[in-house]
Batch of 3 targets.
Target 1
Amino acid sequence: MNLLTQMEQSISKMPEQYKNMSHDELNHLITSIKQNLGNDLFLPGHHYQKEEVMNHADARGDSLQLAQLSANTTAKHIVFCGVHFMAETADILSEDHQSVYLPDLRAGCSMADMADIKQTKVAWEELMKLFGDTILPMTYVNSTAAIKSFVGQHGGTTVTSSNAKRVMDWAFTQKERLLFLPDQHLGRNTAYDLGIPLDQMAVWDPILETLIYEGNLTDIKVILWKGHCSVHENFTEHNIQQVREQHQDMAIIVHPECRREVVELSDYNGSTKYIIDTIEGAPSGSKWAIGTEMNLVKRLIKENPDKEIISLNPHMCPCLTMNRIDLAHLAWCLDSINQGLPVNQIKVNEDVSYYSKLALDRMLSL
C-alpha cells in the first residue's frame, strides 16, 4: 500500500463520532485512554504541534530527540504527534515489540517530499558521471526513510540542525565533495560557516535534472539539493529590515533553514533547541524577533511573559502539514489502540530500515 492510498484512507476512515465530539469530550477520552494504557503508551509531541495536542504529550522535542526517547521507553505503542518522516525514524530506532503510529497520515513535510528516491538515484547517476567517486551523500533528518537508506548505502550520514557543522566537517575527511539533501538552506549555511565560499557551492535541480552552477566544475565542494522548508523560506530580508526600523533594541534569532541572506542579517541562528534555550536563558525584559514556526513562537511568548517576543514575519502561518494532527485524530488513534484494532501504523521496510539506521548511527557515533 503506497503512502497516497494510506493518506486517503486516513481521511475517509475516521468515524464520524470523533469529528462530532466536543473538545471537552475529546480531551476526556484521550486522558482516560492514556490512564488505561499506562506505561504501554508513549506520546511524543514535536515542538511545532498545536497546543491542544501538546497538552497531552508525554515529551516534547525535535524529531530525532523524540525518536530516541521513544526507542528508549518500555512502551509498546508510540503515538507520534509530528509528521510522517519523524514516525519513520521512531520506527527505525525502536525495538521489534514496539509499534509506531501517526494519528493523521496526511501529516507530512513539504521539505522531505522535495527529494524522493527516484529523483535521488537519477541525480546520483548524473553526478557520478560528472565527478566520479568523489562525493559523499548527506541528508538532513527531515527526509524520508528511503533517502536516509540511500545515504546509508553510499557511506553517508544524516545530520540535524544542531550537529550539522560537526558532521559536515567529518564528511569532508571522507570525500572531496558533498551532496546535501534535501534542504539547500541548511546545507548552504552550514558549509559557509565551515569556510566554504558560496562560489564553491552548486545546486542540483531534481525537476530539471540538472546542475546549476556558473564556473569550473572542479571548484565545486558542496552540491545542494534544491529543496527548502516552506515555513522558514518565507522569512525575508524585508522582515529583518522592518524589525530593525520598528524595534531597534530587539534581537533577531532565526533557524538555519532560513535563506542565507536572512541568517547573515540576523543576530543569532541555530536549531529549534538552540532557539528555545536562548530565549529561556535570556534576561528578563529582553526583546526578541524569532524566525521559526508560529506554533513554537506562540508557545515561547506564552511561557516567557517577562520578555517581549514577536514573530520575525507577523503574517506567518503555522506549518500546515504539522497542523494536520488534531484532537479528533489523536482520540481516534488512541481509541483504536485501546480497542485492540490499531490504525495508521508506520512500518519501515526491513532493508530500508537497516541502511537508514546505518546513516543515523554514523551521525550518532560522532
Target 2
Amino acid sequence: MKKVVAISFLCVLYIAGAKGKDNLIQSPSTSFFIIKDTVPENIAKEDSLIEEVIKTRSLPKKDKVQYFNQVTKYGFKNLFSNYSYNASMPYTAQVNPNAESFVQDYIKAHSNYLQNMKGWGKPYFNLIENILQQYGLPKELKYIAVIESNLSTGATSVVGAGGPWQFMPYTAKDYGLVVNGALDERRDYYKSTHAAARYLLYLYSQLHDWLLVMAAYNGGPGRVYSAIKKSGSNDFWRLQYYLPEESRTYVKRFIATHYIMEGGGGVTTFSGGALPMGNEVNRTTYGRSGNAGPFKTANLTADELVDVEVLSITGKYNSLVIAKNIMMDIALFNHFNPSFDATMSVTGNFDLRLPPDKMQLFTANKYQILNESVQALLGDASVPDFKTVYPLPGKKKTR
C-alpha cells in the first residue's frame, strides 16, 4: 500500500463543563483541538521521531524507545481506564464496558482454542513482545498477529496478504521486506515483526489511538479518516458504526483475544460483579455502599435539586441514546446522572434525574429510546449524533 500523506488526525472528546478551555490546546499539525491530559502535547516531536524510525528502517535509540513508551501508552485511552492493562487488577474494572456483549459472544466461540494457544504460542509471543519493546510499543499489540493469522507464517489471504502479520506485497516492500519469486520475508517472523512494528508506529502517528490503529490495520487509514469526519469523533465507540463492519468487528476481536489471553478468560468472569470503567465522557471513580450500589451520586446545586424530576428506570438504556432523543448535551446529562452506563450494566436500574422539560420528553419517548438503546447494544444501530470534534472555523483538512 502506498503511504498516505502523514497527517495526524487528532480529535477530541469535547466534554462541556467537565474540561475548561485552559485544558485544550491546538494540534500543531492539524486544525483540531486536543486535550492535554489524554494526548501528549508535543505531537510534532513525536511524529518527527516516528517518521525518522520509519525512513531509516532501523531500531530507535534507547532514549527514543523510552520516549515512545511514554507517548504510545495514551493510545489505549478508550480501552483501559489507566491507559494500559494492569494484570493485578480485575479485568472488567479496567476495560471499557462497551465491549462487553461482543466479548462474551466471542469467548463462547473461541475461548478453548485461544487458551490452548497460550501454551504452544509462547515462543512466538516472546519473540513478538521483545521486538515491540525495542520500538517502545505496547506489548498488547502482539495479539494483532493472532487475529491476522493465528500466528501462522504460512497464512495467505484470498487477496494475497501473507505471513503472521498479513502484509500485502506492496506494504511489505514499503516497510523493508523483500517479496519476490525467490524470497518472501513476510513469512520470516523476525523480519516481518520488525516491519509490523514500524507500520504500527506509522499508523499511530496518524491516529494516536490504538483502537483506531487496529481499524486502519484492517481496512486502511482512509476509511478511519472518513469515519472520523462523518462522526465528528475520534472515539472508536462513537465512530464505529461509520466503519465497515469487518473493521469494527476486527477491533472487538482484538479486545476479546486480549481478555482471553490476559484476563483469565471464561465468559462468566467477564461480567461477574465487576466494576466497569465508564466511557470517556462519563469516566469516574466508582464506589459502592451496601450490597449493590449506589455508584457515584450526582453533585447538583441547590437550584438544580429544586428543579429536577426523578424517575426509576429499568432496562438496557444507553446514556448517549437518551441524551440524543431528549436533545440534551451529553455532558449535562452526565452531570445529572453520573456513572449512568456503568451502574445500568451492573445493577440494571437507575434513578434517572432530569429537568422537568427533559423528563417529559423522556417519558413520552421511553419505549422508542429503550428499543434504540437495545439495538445499539446489539450492534445494529447507527451511532448517536454527537459532535465531539471541533475544527477551527475557516480551515479545511487536507490529506
Target 3
Amino acid sequence: MRDNSDDYRSLFLAKVPMMDVRAPVEFGKGAFPGVINRPLMNDEERRLVGTCYKERGQEAAIALGHKLVNGELKAARIAAWQAFAEAHPDGYLYCFRGGLRSQLVQQWLAEAGVEYPRVIGGYKAMRRFLIDTLDEAVRDCPLHLVAGLTGTGKTEIITALDNSLDLEGHAHHRGSSFGRHATPQPTQIDFENRLAIEVLQVRAQGAGSLVLEDEGRMVGSCSVPLELYRTMQTAPLVWLEDSLDNRVTRILGDYVIDMHAEFVTQHPHDAELAFEAFAEYLLGSLLRIRKRLGPEHFQTLDELMRQALEEQRRSGDVQAHRGWIEGLLRDYYDPMYAYQRGAKEERIVFAGERDAVIGYLREAALSS
C-alpha cells in the first residue's frame, strides 16, 4: 500500500482524488473542490455515536458504531469505498482528524482486499494548511486591484492574467445587486478553501505578486477573509476604462443572455418556468435597490425592464434590455463608482482600456 500522507501541498497541487468519509452534515458545512463524500456513518448514526461517546466513553461509542453499521449496510458502504478506490487508484481517504473513522475505513477496505492510504490529520489539518497558505500569501505578495465602472470587464482582466485570484468566481457571485447566479453560492468555508487552493496554485507557478478585482468585504453572501480584505484597502489600484456602449453590451451578455441560459439549464424541460425564474431574478434584483434609486428612477427602470422582458418572451429579441441597462449605469452605478474613485484617487497607479491594463499588470508582475 502507498504510504499515508501529510503532504497537503502536493495533494492540492496535483488535484489528487480524495474520498471524505465524514458524515454528510460535516461535508455540507465545508469541503474541498472535487472531493467525493462516501461516509462511514450517516448523520443520525453519527449523532447517536457522538451522544454515546459523551455519556459512556470511547469504547462504548465504538461498539455502538459497529452495531449501527453492520451486515448489508456495512457491505454497501465498503462496496462504495471499493468503487472509489478502483476508479481512483492514486487517491486518498480522510475523516475529520485522520483518526478512528478513516482508520476503520482503511481496516474494512483491507479486509475486503483493498489497501488504500489516508490523509494524516484529516480535514482539520488540510483546512489549517489552506488558511495558513492564504495568510502567508497576503503577508508576502504585493497586491494590485483592478477597479473601474460596472461593465468594463474587470473579470476579463482577472481571467487573462496568470497571477490573479478570482474572488467572484470562487464566490459564484458577480458582486452586485444583480450578481447572483441560478445556482447557490458555496458555503463560506468552501469559498475560503477554493480561494486558498488557487493561491497555492498561482504561487507554485512562480507568481510573486497577486491581482484581484477591487471588491467590498461581501461578495454576495461570501465574506472576503479579513486579513486579505484589510490588505486590499491599501493596495494600489489599476482603473479599467471602456465606452458606455461596450459596457451595456457586456452587461446584456452577463445579466440577460447568460442568466437566461442558466435558468434554462435549471429547467431544461420547461421553457416557461425557466423564463419566469429569469424574469423574477431581474425584477427582484432591481427591487433590492429601489430605495437607493429613488421612486421615480425605479419606476422608469422597472417599466423598461418589464417591456424588455415581454419583448424577449414574445420574440426572443433581447435588445430592448439595453434601455434599462443604460439607465441603471448612468443614474445609479456610474455616480456611485465616481464617488468611490474620488475617495481612492491617490491609490490609482494606472488607468486605461483592456489591453493597456493587461500590459501594465504583466509588467508589474515581472518586476515583483
